[in-house]
Amino acid sequence: MSMRKISFGKAINEALHQEMERDDSVFIIGEDVAKMGGDFGVTRGIWQKWPDRAKDTALSESAIIGLASGAAVCGLRPVAELMFADFIGVAFDQLVNNAAKLRYMFNGEVSCPMVVRAPTGSGIRTAYHHSQSVEPWFMNVPGLVIVAPSTPYEAKGLLIASIRNEDPVIFLEHKSFYSIKGDVPEESYEVELFKAEVKREGRDVTIVATMSMVALAEKAAEKLAEEGISVEIIDPRTLFPLDKDTINRSVAKTGRLVIAQEGPKVMGFGAEIAAMVVEDVFEYLKAPVKRVTTMDVPIPFSPVLEDYVVPTDVDITEACKAVVEF
Amino acid sequence: MSMRKISFGKAINEALHQEMERDDSVFIIGEDVAKMGGDFGVTRGIWQKWPDRAKDTALSESAIIGLASGAAVCGLRPVAELMFADFIGVAFDQLVNNAAKLRYMFNGEVSCPMVVRAPTGSGIRTAYHHSQSVEPWFMNVPGLVIVAPSTPYEAKGLLIASIRNEDPVIFLEHKSFYSIKGDVPEESYEVELFKAEVKREGRDVTIVATMSMVALAEKAAEKLAEEGISVEIIDPRTLFPLDKDTINRSVAKTGRLVIAQEGPKVMGFGAEIAAMVVEDVFEYLKAPVKRVTTMDVPIPFSPVLEDYVVPTDVDITEACKAVVEF
Amino acid sequence: MALLKERLLDLYYKMVLIREFEEVMDIYAKNGTIPGFVHLGIGQEASQAGIVDALKETDYKYPDHRGHGVSILCGTDRKLVMAEIFGKGTGINGGRGGSMHINDIKVRNMGFNGIQGSTTVTALGTAFASVYKGNKDVSVIFMGDGTLGEGACHESINMAATWKLPVLYCVINNQYAISTHYRESHPQKQLATWADGYGVPNEVVDGNDVEAVVEATERAVERARNGDGPTLIEYMTYRWQGHFAGDPAAYRPDEELQEWKNKCPVKRTKARLLDVHGFPEKILSDIEKKVVDEVQSMLKFCLESPEPDTKEALKHVYAGFGEEI
Amino acid sequence: MALLKERLLDLYYKMVLIREFEEVMDIYAKNGTIPGFVHLGIGQEASQAGIVDALKETDYKYPDHRGHGVSILCGTDRKLVMAEIFGKGTGINGGRGGSMHINDIKVRNMGFNGIQGSTTVTALGTAFASVYKGNKDVSVIFMGDGTLGEGACHESINMAATWKLPVLYCVINNQYAISTHYRESHPQKQLATWADGYGVPNEVVDGNDVEAVVEATERAVERARNGDGPTLIEYMTYRWQGHFAGDPAAYRPDEELQEWKNKCPVKRTKARLLDVHGFPEKILSDIEKKVVDEVQSMLKFCLESPEPDTKEALKHVYAGFGEEI
Ligand SMILES: Cc1ncc(C[n+]2csc(CCOP(=O)(O)OP(=O)(O)O)c2C)c(N)n1
Ligand SMILES: Cc1ncc(C[n+]2csc(CCOP(=O)(O)OP(=O)(O)O)c2C)c(N)n1
Ligand SMILES: [Mg+2]
Ligand SMILES: [Mg+2]
Hints:
The complex is a heterotetramer, with two copies of chain A and two copies of chain C.
Chain A: E1 3-7, H1 8-22, E2 26-30, H2 46-49, E3 54-56, H3 61-73, E4 77-81, H4 92-98, H5 102-105, E5 115-120, E6 145-147, H6 152-164, E7 169-174, E8 181-185, E9 197-200, E10 205-209, H7 212-226, E11 231-235, E12 238-240, H8 244-254, E13 257-264, H9 269-280, E14 290-294, H10 303-309, H11 313-325
Parallel strand pairs in A: 2-3, 2-4, 4-5, 5-7, 6-7, 10-11, 10-13, 13-14
Antiparallel strand pairs in A: 1-8, 6-12, 9-11
Helix pairs in contact in A: 1-6, 3-4, 7-11, 8-9
Chain C: H1 5-30, H2 45-53, E1 60-62, H3 68-72, H4 78-85, H5 118-133, E2 139-144, H6 151-163, E3 167-173, E4 176-177, E5 180-181, H7 182-185, E6 202-206, H8 210-225, E7 231-236, H9 254-262, H10 265-275, H11 281-304
Parallel strand pairs in C: 1-2, 2-3, 3-7, 6-7
Antiparallel strand pairs in C: 4-5
């Protein structure tokens, strides 16, 4: 495959172009996704090529998600954009009570192959209505799939896999990633859904990290390596349903778990991981599990406040040391 | 206090009457809550006494919650009813992005003392849109309070405390409870928020159970007592923010934890409890934590299907035995 | 313009069928055999039968929660609809949905939804797919007067009107949302005028006059098929029962109910068949007997049907993950 | 009926103040001093200043996300508004909200909300409280043309119209929602006619004519205060900048922008003060100079202000739990 460095945003854009090219049933819909190419520029060039398959809508998130699910039942493959993941709140019912349950409702006779792309997370100084981590709102809803890439390579391959997947996918794009570059093949490819990735192998402690936390975990791992602590990093990539085995196996090996998570601690996705581990591999646990998370507050605007409430690599390093020294 | 037996629904009704009597700023609003007295009859008699303080609305849950939060900021104390907790989906944004964050937004200069009453849970054969357990959707949202009584006594006292509380409260009423009777004082009283209740003391295993699961846990405890296993039962009563101490202390004592929860397992409220325990009192844990929950599916209609997916006292008994024998 | 008399006769059969079906459901709901809530359409037969009659099988139909009648007229084997209401394993959705959730994709019954207003936006998707694929299937939403309060209705009609999607909003105005009269929760005298705000053609029809129902619906469906966009029709009618089987409906005056019973859509059609079209009484009473037999045989099927296999509860959550991969 | 000339002169001051304030914000947003997104109101000064001028301090005001101008006219110490935009500890909300979230309960600036449409239903609550308490304060919602797409708008106007709540819907139609022209996302020629569907009085006014803005708004406010219910006014205007400071706004024709620059509301008011009311040039240029000084002194305050204390981030999440019990 011919690799070159492109940005996370461009990788997603390329995935969309290639899937639109490959499959006539794929279309995009959302606010300003067509003519302007998206608020973050991710859908550029699609409307120009396929004007009938790129729809700018009114500010109507329920209608966007509702339309997508109805179209999906008819065999189309909508890729809807929510300008910010936070806006999922006004379309919550459509995802939780409709898209997620359609297949079950129809006794398995239909499926709902739609993707909802949603820029998520904090860090770009947009305060509490444009900085939330929404995955915990949906991880208790069977029928949904939540995907969260942390590299341009994954972004492209996971989006392609999501579009081809038969169930409704919430595709989280960390908004701090868009301009970050990485190796991405030119060709179309899938990165397998429902499969965690071991980003670094290690012996002493497992860090489960996702999206923006992966790079911090890697930084922490480097520092810990200097101190003789060997860290294994696992990125679930699909947050729901979860690849339990990969995580459980790693924790069984290292005996220690730190979860690095953006978003408030209580009932963050780390809660599920910690609970799973203490249920499934308790006998291997040598130390308490630790969750390194955003503080339990709305995300404030001012950079000094935002930086204060969001976890850092130092927090991860310290958590790892604490569990190793336990 | 003069006790007598009244139903869970009547206890809530009495709390409303007494608070309306005491405080002019309390009013009720919702679909069919005024003239008819509520779909489950919980608000009976209020409109007849205070016609201007009981409002029947259109089917407009966002408007109901929005109105309540705006009125609360003006110093009123709305008690809104959602006919079923599931309908919170169409008002999700109003709770998560507005009510929950108002105080923070206004730099502490306002508060939002509102209560949203919401009949929750499964068991009355109403399928997947009228049987959900919604608490996990909200437990990651700082600023909200989630209250969940399991007896008529608690229902009255917790509702009164919720109305007097300064923050937005989601008050969950398990819909299978409405006609169940219990001892309730005639007088007005508060049951403290943010305080778990030890429902039964024991030595060998702690069960954390809430709402419908409390009675099942008690049944399980009786059976286990016959086999010489001593069970401690804790009902958090306020699910969020949680009374961590009471739970942690109990688990530190018994060394074993079973969580009995209605609603799908993944990222149910049991996830947070298990995670907290393995973080905070790991060294006392003698066995894996076990979660006894509804299966990870939408709640089906047919009684045989619904009963199959919802946990039973036998499931709880077995989980307790498993952790004791570990 | 009146309907051909053969068509009216057939509609009579369908209305009598709904009436009988619902009366039997009422009995079995009240005696506890049917679990959960059951919302009956007695009194609304003309609107239910008339609208479906104006559609093709390939049109996408979104019945409301009072939708047994619509569901038995869409082409599904009727006993499977009834079995679903009983929660049996033979039900059209395997018993997972019950009375509030009957779907059948084969005949494009897109199902009722427990969240009022929700289908108004789902229907945008099936309508969009019709345009996308270049076929002419119309998406038809049945909705109560009360349902019009939901925000989703606005997002739906706004988008449908802007994009001229083939959507038909059928507002079945039975005047109450549970206990609340529509004049207490909406500012309009007639709800149809709400569509004026979007420039969407709309009309009010007598929902108990099956011929008027068919004709207005056909006009609107025609418009949608021709690419002229959505229409909203308000069908004025009344539900004889309470909100659900067992609701005493104390919130409404007895005289009002009596007045509407006098406007019974079934009787009215019968009178027309007898008086205007000159059908002999016997033909009509044969239809009535046939319907009783038909419903009894469905009932027998349901009562003898097995409960669902518990394992079914775990199926069909995902198409692409777990069991069904 | 024209405004008294002293009032118009004062409005001129306010409009010039908004213009200058926003131009300075533009510079500091583009040079990176101000973090995050900044939505500027340049071009919309007549609507912003005129609407606020028609209100009392006790009226509840819900500015939209383009609401700096409204926020500096509500009675808040203006430098604290600017400090909030800079995210400083001295900001009116302690820097926790920034440009997109400026509130001040003391002057009943109820704040902008990052979720478009959300305040339309919150405003029902303040309006309801006015009725409940028997006072006459009106709840005034500023909202863009695009925002009218949200379902909440329907639930809001439906309830306000039914209950005749004292609500005023101020639709600031600057014609675009980011890149999307309102005629591409809404079916109406003029959005005001949407209110016809609810029987809510509505009108379209020239949003660049501050006198027309004040007059229409005062009429509507009067109606609300008298218990006659909501009104919707559509103010036709244009934003000169892109959606946010830095957006090149490539989606719209240059000529269109030029055309609207020719209709500059500030220049237009100035011309009227000079030509019709005969104010000497000097009085106006003094105002302009005074405004420059005023804004510079706010700016100085902001730049010298300390960052927030990090501990502040943890405060005010709950009133009745934790720290603040
Ligand atoms: C979002 C939502 N809100 C409330 C309900 C509860 N509910 C079910 S039916 C109903 C009344 C509906 O009235 P209408 O639309 O007029 O239909 P009808 O029952 O009269 O046929 C209500 C309030 C619901 N199912 N979903
Ligand atoms: C619910 C929601 N959807 C989308 C957005 C993103 N967004 C912010 S402003 C905007 C355009 C708003 O247009 P309009 O209402 O006309 O106001 P204008 O920016 O023109 O002043 C959009 C799409 C949002 N903040 N909230
Ligand atoms: Mg009705
Ligand atoms: Mg605009």
